[in-house]
Amino acid sequence: MAPRCLNQSSPCGARSSRLHSRRSRTRTLASASPLSAQDLEHLKSASALAVQTLGETQPHPNAACILVNADGSVASSAHLRANGSPSPEVRAVKLAGGRSALEGGTAYLNLEPGQCHGDDAPIQALLAARVSRVVIGIRHPMKHFRGEATEALRRAGVNVDVVDTINTDDADVLAVLDRCRAANAALACRAETGKPLGVLKYAMTLDGKIAASSGHAAWVSCEAARARVYQMRAESDAVVVGGNTIRRDNPRLTTRRESGHRPLRVVLSRSMNLPIHDADYNIWNTSEAPTLVMTQRGAADEGTLDVLRSKYGVEVVEFDILTADVASNYLARRGCLQVLWESGGNLSAPAISEQAVHKVVAFVAPKIVGGPTDATVEQPAAPTPVGDLGNIFMTQAIELKSARYEQVGTDMCVTGYLNRAYDGPDFMETATPSSQTATSSYDGFDGVVSNQPMMCDLPHLDLPRSMVESWGLLPGTQFGDAAAMTALCETDEASNDGGGEKRSAPVHFYKAWMEHGALTNFSPHEICVHDADKVSDMDPSTTWPSVEHFYQASKFDVRQGTPGSEEAEEIRASIGAAPSPEEAARIGRTYERTRPDLVYQDWTTRKVPVMEAAIRAKFTQHNAPRRALLNTGRRRLVEDSVVDSYWGGGRDRGGLNHLGRLLMELREELRMQESVQRADVLRVAASLERDRAPSWEDGRNDL
User: Fold this and answer.
1) Which of 104, 224, 230, 469 could form a disulfide with 70 if both were Cys (CB 3.0 to 4.6 A apart)?
2) What is the mean pLDDT of residues 160-183?
3) Which domains are assigned to the chain?
């Protein structure tokens, strides 16, 4: 039976009703909306397009771009596929035919672009297409991105409308705004709390039981509701349960899909009272999905932990004290945006109390199971979804915010937020709207837009463009020597002596959508590794979509005469064709684990030269990430991976951090090269000035 919804339309298209609707509020100083009905329809389409890959790839900012010609026809549309994929603006402009293809047209974005890759690519693409107007649904929730793209577009003379800064009580505008916010509720939660959006999901009977008194719980909900849960898992980074759930229900906690994103299965157990020696438990089958066990130090001996790690391939992390809050913060450091809590009442109560859970999704089945009212050891009470919260009066009950109701199959689904509705009007409501600023012109993908003064005081130079381009400092542009001199003379404040705490603090980078995303291997910068034949037996002329694509493909031995070389070549090809760095990594890691016979036997010694060659190609072939690297000054660079203490800093940030070290070495090399180039420019400048200055002898000859 198809899901049937009730009442008003929800942000994601379902019919729903809100307990606390913003539309019932009285708004002061409301003004007429500058948006047309066509604007609203395109924004609605953009918000729907943005969530198209939910479940296919790991959660990431959900963004989409729809380009509309001046005559109102749709030219192209695109969405962000995965972590590290090219921005939807870049993809949409390419689909529309590139530069100047949309002169006088309009771009519709559900989310303000986040320029995390250091190259302003979304802005450059829109300006190159010559759109005259951009309509943005919501500002970027991350503070280091918020307003930056809007200001850049306005400086370039583009008319920008940001819907969540418009003071209006127009119901149609507010409905579209709700859709845009709903698409990135997890990102909004992460931006404000520093934690992933915690979603508590449970199914219960009409009398409030999640299982019978015997513990039997299959199945409380209907088939349609279970299908919805599988989708919710696919849309999450991790699924969390407690030890009781593992022992009683033996759940698989998978998406039931053969492909797509597989969330991390997390088991919280302080006592380690788990069926570790019973391989029939689904949670130990890591071929279906990865499993992580969180526990407290000393809860299990090394032999037990070794069984989990070596026999099942389960990751184990120990904490001094394990709480729901500790687990949530740890998952945040792993880069999680959304975590699904499918725990029982004993764990869900502290998860709520410690604010690890922000949202509730409850399925209520039209069933009554009953159970004893006075529980005993022999006859326990039927469990309820939430344990003791310490409330003794009904007035202390938590009332859901932005509550919605939807019929799913034969069940009723109730959703709402516990504290703040991250898809509602409260978030960023007090943020200052972006203001109109001075404008400047822009022409083409390769140009540079800047209203900043020159960073050094040098005489004007008519340097030949061929000289500028041959130095490799900037791509050839119409701005010629001025752009080159700006780049050459830029002052790096972060490297000045005597800097404050911010200047000396380490730079932590991890996900491509986070700050300093340009430093990650997942940033969307194509590379051509000229010595690939030496480090990984590859064709040096091959172009790879990212550093991660090249690194993962380099693991597999394709040398002729090596057993399995043809299969290894096919794996390399599939990695190279992966639509995103995330998917390339998934393919490479899967085959490395399941087919170790195809990996270079000396991969341990090969991988550092491979990584060094790849990042050198990226930072020498792309100006923007190179500037992002140099702008870190002399600060320590740390790949902030809690799971990788070889390439990253590890959980305690005391790991080997080889990637950070390689980047710092490359940064110093690039800095020295720029110093030499800067000195060459100054010599040329001095020489030109001497040639131009009239000498006394020249003056005498005129007598």
Assistant:
1) 104
2) 93
3) 31-183 (3.40.140.10), 188-372+380-417 (3.40.430.10), 506-676 (1.10.357.40)
